[in-house]
Amino acid sequence: MQLLNSAAVLLVLTGAFLGLTLPFGKLAFAAGIAPSLWAFVISIGAGTVLLAAFLIMGKRPRLNVRMLRYYVITALISYAIPNLMTLSAIPHLGSGYTGIMYTLSPVFTLLLSVLFKMRSPNLLGLLGIFVGFAGAVIVGFTRGQVGQPADPLWVGIGLLIPVLLALGNVYRTLDWPKGADPTELAAGSHLMTALILVPIIFYATGSFPVAPLGAVPWLVFAQVLASACMFALYFRLQAVGGPVYLSQIGYVGAAIALLAGTLFLGEVYQFATWGGAIIITLGVLMTTKAKVS
Q1: Cα–Cα distance measured from residue 122 to residue 119, given in angstroms and rounded to the nearest whole number
Q2: pLDDT at position 153, please?
Q3: d(Cα 59, Cα 234) in Å, to the nearest integer?
Q4: Residues 31-57: what's their mean pLDDT?
Q5: What was the pLDDT predicted at 189?
Q6: Of the residues 123, 142, 250, 286, which has the fewest C-beta atoms closer than 10 A?
Q7: pLDDT at residue 146 tops 50
Q8: Separation CA 144–CA 151 (nearest Å)
Q9: Nearest to 287, CA basis, from 237, 236, 227
């Protein structure tokens, strides 16, 4: 599996699976599934499949204080809190504005990696990050949601989303347990996320409304498969590419979601949106070139 040692291949595949979760999420919300429950489906599905794969490989997960700390911190700052903040911010900021917040993650990750004296990209890699960011901003502004006046409080909350994602990217590298398998960490982190989300679902909905899931079993299966593949590759990319390179999966995911929405959901975008997607692709190609040069 030489391809799984290539940061460029891992970036494209991980970003592609991330991009699929966006149209899947749109279909889930249309089916009446609560956002917190759908976040639970993503994590419990990915965690269960990855744990099963890990066991089938003949390996045994370690569970000690060191691993438990990693799982709890990763679950909180990388998945549970950012997802809940995003779902809460979208009604106040619009999806386009919130999407722009996500594109700040590579920039914040880069700043934190410099602060913690971790390996940083070369000049071409830096240019690629900022080119990708420029393209993502264009895509965000052409969604038609950004021009709405936004409450400064929610703008501040929105800005915390990429900060948390960046902290998660850097934390997972700095505190990576010695000798830990990427699949083991992915499974444990998502099962912990699912556990954290259970009381949140009860608080938000007053129950655990699983009935809507039964109406769209194919969607649940597709989402679990996509998220399991994504997070298996996600932690592998973290180990191979580092936190700054990993953070750019959002750029790839945005382009894939744009294409999927157009082809399968009947969404129509402006010419400028496609121009932004092309710029994002150029930025990713630049950072990929910098990675292998």
Answers
A1: 9
A2: 81
A3: 20
A4: 92
A5: 96
A6: 123
A7: no
A8: 17
A9: 237
Q: Which residues of 242-265 are buried (b: 16+ CB within 10 A; e: fewer)?
A: bbbbbbbbbbbbbbbbbbbbeeee
| Alpha carbons 116 and 112: distance in angstroms, whole number | 6
Note the Cα 41 to chain centre separation in Å. Answer: 15
pLDDT at residue 132, as a whole number:
81
Residues 6+ apart with CB under 8 A from 65: none
pLDDT of residue 123: 84
Cα separation values, 117 from 14, 79, 166, 183, 242, Å: 26, 25, 15, 27, 13
Q: Which residue do the tokens 């899947």 mark?
A: 24
Global pTM reads: 0.84
Residues 279-292 have pLDDT tens digits of: 888 887 887 777 65
Distance of CA 28 to the CA centre of its chain: 17
The whole-number pLDDT of residue 91 equals 64
145 vs 241, residue with greater confidence: 241
Q: How many domains would you assign to the chain?
A: 1
Domain that includes residue 121, residue range? 2-292
Cβ proximity of 177 and 72 under 8 Å? no
Residue entry with tokens 């960490």: 185
Instruction: Round the average pLDDT of the chain to a whole number and report it.
Output: 83
* DSSP secondary structure letters along 162-195: HHHHHHHHHHHHHTPPTT--HHHHHHHHHHHHHH
**Other residues' Cβ atoms within 10 Å of the Cβ of residue 121:** 20
From 21-35, 96-110, 187-201, the region with the lowest mean pLDDT: 96-110
Query: What DSSP line would sit under 8-32, residue for residue?
Result: HHHHHHHHHHHHHHHHHHHHHHHTT
Amino acid at 149: P
Rounded CA separation 28/87 (Å): 13
